[in-house]
Amino acid sequence: MQKKLLTVAASVCVLLVAGCGKHSDAATQPSQQAFNAVQFCGDFASAPPELKALADKAWKSIQSGAFPVALKCLDKLAADPALNTEQKKSVASLTEQVKKQMAATTAVK
After folding, report:
1. pLDDT tens digits along 52-80
2. CA 62, CA 71: separation in Å to the nearest integer?
3. Are 66 and 23 contained in the same domain?
4. What does pTM read for this prediction?
5. Are 38 and 65 contacting, i.e. CB atoms less than 8 angstroms apart?
6. Structurally, how many domains does the chain consist of?
7. Longest Cα–Cα distance in the chain
8. What is the pLDDT of residue 66?
9. What is the rounded end-to-end Cα distance, in angstroms, of the chain?
10. Coil, helix or strand for 88?
11. What residue numbers bound the domain in which 14 lies?
12. 91 contact partners, CB below 8 Å, separation of at least 6
């Protein structure tokens, strides 16, 4: 009986130590938000080639986590006078999402 109790106690200690290590790793990882780019991609699907290329570069930069590059692309898009109202709204929305993610990442560090 004592041998079983000792085995159970040792197993519990091992599990507790193993579990604690995983929690500290998770706490240091920045939270990744899901970006809502359905509207953005749709608004630029039939855009002129130069706008579509810039929008694609912005989206690919977001997907790869290169947020400063994405913001530069989004700023260039926002400054383009050829954008229609829907495109302007999509760019503004995605820009805010990127800024929030960057702030969240910076706050964790």
Report:
1. 999 999 999 999 999 999 999 999 999 99
2. 9
3. no
4. 0.68
5. no
6. 2
7. 81
8. 95
9. 49
10. helix
11. 1-30
12. 40, 74, 77, 78, 83
